[in-house]
Amino acid sequence: MQIDTVLAELRVDRPAVLARAISVVENGRPGFERLLAGCHPRLGRARRIGVTGPPGAGKSTLTHRVAAEYRRRGLTVAIVAVDPTSPFTGGALLGDRIRMEAVSLDPGVFIRSMATRGSLGGLATTTREVCDVLDAAGFDRILIETVGVGQSELDVAKMADTTVLVLVPESGDGIQTLKSGVMEVADIFVVNKADRPGAEKLQQEIEVTLGIRRGNAYRRIRAHHGVSLAKAGGQGSPPPEASAGWEPPVLLAKALDGDGVPSIVEAIERHHQAGEASGELGERRRRRVVERTREVVGRMLQRWVWSESPADRWIGDRVEEMLAGAVSPYEVAADVVTSLREGARL
Amino acid sequence: MQIDTVLAELRVDRPAVLARAISVVENGRPGFERLLAGCHPRLGRARRIGVTGPPGAGKSTLTHRVAAEYRRRGLTVAIVAVDPTSPFTGGALLGDRIRMEAVSLDPGVFIRSMATRGSLGGLATTTREVCDVLDAAGFDRILIETVGVGQSELDVAKMADTTVLVLVPESGDGIQTLKSGVMEVADIFVVNKADRPGAEKLQQEIEVTLGIRRGNAYRRIRAHHGVSLAKAGGQGSPPPEASAGWEPPVLLAKALDGDGVPSIVEAIERHHQAGEASGELGERRRRRVVERTREVVGRMLQRWVWSESPADRWIGDRVEEMLAGAVSPYEVAADVVTSLREGARL
Is B177's Cβ below 8 Å from some Cβ in A? Predict the structure, then answer.
C-alpha cells in the first residue's frame, strides 16, 4: 500500500490501515517521514494521557478501565502499551492483558503494543510518532501505558498532555522509593488496589509531600523538569502559594472492579480544561513541535553521515593507526567532523 | 586538577585521581575527550568481563567473589556496577553491596557505581569510556556488572571481552523466559544459588539448548550478533560441528559462599586465551575502535549542530508556521539539514 493511500484511508474505523501506518513509523520503513509529515496538519484532536508507575501497580487494568469509561462517554480510544523489552522477562503483565480482552473487541478501541528494540530515535521519539498517527486518524483519547522500569519510560510519560502516576499500597516503602523527578511528572496520582491495607496512609503521604512542595521548591522542581505552571486552579481551594498552579489530586481506585475509574476520567478532563485555560497546553504543544523538529534533524544528520557521506570509509582508512595507538578515535573523529563540516571532500 | 595532571597520575594506586577522571568522563566535563584521547595509547592491558542476568540472580555477590579470587591470584581489579536508575526503586541490591564491603576495603580493588542519567552518548558508550580510563590506569581485570533489566544493559554486557550470564533456578520458567539474543551474548553460563532445587535441571536445560544450537543455526545467530567464532576449542570434546568455536560452559555456583567461583575465573581466563589464539579478540578490538569512532563522530556532530550552528534559530523562526499546520517538522528539519550540509548560511 502506498504512503498516500495509507494517509487517505487513515481513520479510526480502519484498523488494518492503522496497523500498517504504525508499523511503517515504528520500523522507520521507507516513506515514514512523508507519512508523518502528512499526519501533521491533522494533529491536535486527540488528548494524550500517559499512565505510568512501578511494575505490578495495575497500570494495564487501569488503562483498560479508563478506556471503557471513555467509550461509555461516546469517545474513541487508542491504547499504546509500551513494552520495555527486558531481555529477562517476568511476564507478569500478561494476566492483565488477557483479562481485559473485552475492551479490545470493541471497534472503538484500538490497542497497540510497542516494541522498543530497533527504534531509530529512541523509545520516546517513536512513541510520540505513533501517537501522531493515531491522532491524525481521529481518535479522541490516546492512552499511553508505560511499564515504569527506566528513565526512558518516564520520558514517554512526560510527553503526554496529562500524566497519571499509579501506585499501590505495597509499592516498597511508600513514596520514599520514588526517585527524584517522578513525583513531579504526575498530574494525577492514583492509589490503586485501594482495598488493601495502607492505601489511605499512602494517599496521605503523597498529599503531605505535595503540600510540602507546593511553595517555591515545588514550583522550582516543576520548572526544572520543563513543566510550567498552569494559571487555572484545580478542584477545591488550594493553599495560597499554589493558587497559580494545578493541584495534582490523589485518588483512590480499585481498577479491577472499576471502582474510582469515573473520578480518574473526570480528573483527566479537568486537568485538560485547566491546561487549555491557562495556556499551559499551548506551551506544551510549542515545546513539543520544537523538540520533534530537533529530533528529526538529528536523525537526518545521522542518516546523511552514515549512509551518504564517506565518513565510514575515512574511519576505516585509519583503523590500523588507531589499533597501533598512534592516533586516538577522538582525533580521527574530530578530523572526520571537520571534513564533513568543510564539505571539502564530499 | 588539569587534564594533563590527571593523565600523568592515573594509576591503580591513586583512587582519588581515578574517581576524578571517571567523573570527568561520565559527566562529559570540559576536556573529557582529551582525557580519553590520552588514555588511548595505554589501552589493552585490562581484560573486560561483563556480568549480567536477571534481577535477584546474585550478580553483585558473584562479581565481588570473582574480584576476590582475582586478588588471590595477585591481580588488580576494577568493578563497574551499572545501575539502570529505575525511577521506581526496589533497592534489593543494596543488601549484597553492603555485605561485600570487605572487598572494597582492599586497595587493589576499585569499585565504581555508574549512574545512567544524563550520560551524553548512552549507557553503553559511557560505560565503555569509563572502562578505558580504568584500563589506562593499569587494572588487570575490569568486571562490569549490569542489572539486566533492559536492552541497554545487555549492550553493556556485549561490549566486554568475555560475558558471564548469571541465572538462578527460580528465574521464571527457566531459559524459556530469556528473550532471543540473550543466550547468544553469553560466553560463560553460571547457574547461581546452585543448592536450590532445580539448579541441575536448569544447567541441563541450558546445555541442551546450546547443543541444539551448536550447528549452523547457532553459528548463524552468533554471527548475526557480531560474534565471530573462535577457532580454539573449549574444554572437553565438543561435537564435530562446533569444533570451530568456543563452547560456552555451564557452571554451577553458590556465590554467597564462594563455591564454584575459582572455576568461573578459570573459565574466564580460558575464554580469553581461546580468543587470543583464534584472533577473535583482535577482531573484537577492531570492531570496538570503529564503533567508538562512530560514536564520537555522532556526538561531535550533535554538539556542532546544537551549540555552534544556527539550527535552533532556524527552527525557532518557523514554529508558528508548524503550529498552524502550514508546514511539518519533517519539512522544516529537511530544510535545516540541507542548509547545514550546504554550509551556505554558516
Answer: yes
Q: Is A273 inside any structural domain?
A: yes
**In sequence order, which residues have a C-beta less than 8 Å from that of residue B42 and are 6 or more positions away?**
B135, B136, B138
Query: Which pTM does this prediction carry?
Result: 0.73
CA A54/CA A167 separation, integer angstroms:
7
Cell numbers that stand for A40 in this block: 501533521
A61-A68-A98 Cα angle (round to 5): 40
The answer to whether residue A235 neighbours chain B at the CB level (below 8 Å) is no
Are B292 and A329 in contact (CB < 8 Å)?
yes
The rounded distance, in Å, linking the Cα atoms of B55 and B48 is 21
Q: Does A338 touch chain B (CB under 8 A)?
A: no
Distance CA A275, CA A282 (A): 8
- Inform me whether the C-beta atom of residue B235 falls under 8 Å from chain A C-beta atoms: no
Residue type, A311: A
Answer yes or no: do A333 and B293 touch at CB < 8 A. Answer: yes
Place of cell 579470587: B69
Q: Which chain A residue shows the shortest CA-CA distance from B329?
A: A293
Say if B333 falls within a structural domain: no
ipTM of the complex: 0.75
**Contact residues on chain A for B340, CB-CB shorter than 8 A:** 301
Q: Is residue B107 part of a domain?
A: yes
Touching B: A residues 184-223, CB under 8 Å: none
For chain A, how many structural domains are there in total?
1
User: Does the pLDDT value for residue A85 go beyond 60?
Assistant: no
Grid coordinates standing for B293? 569512532
| Model confidence at A292: pLDDT above 90 | no
Domain with A233, as residue range(s), is 42-278
In this complex, do A116 and B151 lie within 8 Å of one another by their Cβ atoms?
A: yes
Strand residue runs (E) in A186-238:
188-191
DSSP 3-state of A42: helix
- Per-residue pLDDT band for A148 (boundaries 50, 70, 90) equals low
Starting at the edge strand found earlier in the chain, the sheet holding B188-191 runs B109-114, B77-82, B141-146, B47-52, B162-167, B188-191, B250-252
Mean pLDDT across chain A: 80
For chain B positions 283-302, those within 8 Å of chain A (CB to CB) are 285-286, 289-290, 292-294, 296-298, 300-302
pLDDT confidence of residue A271: 96
B33, B301, B323 ranked by CB distance to A301: nearest: B301
Whether A101 is covered by a domain: the verdict is yes
**Which residue has better confidence, A340 or B100?**
A340
Task: Report the CATH number that the domain containing residue B272 is assigned in CATH.
Answer: 3.40.50.300
Percent of chain B with pLDDT over 70: 74
- The DSSP annotation for A246-286 comes to ----EEE-BGGGTBTHHHHHHHHHHHHHHHHHHTHHHHHHH
Question: Is A115 an interface residue toward B (CB < 8 Å)?
Answer: no
Work out the minimum CA distance from A28 to partner chain B, whole angstroms.
13
Q: Search chain B and give the residue with CA nearest A302.
A: B298
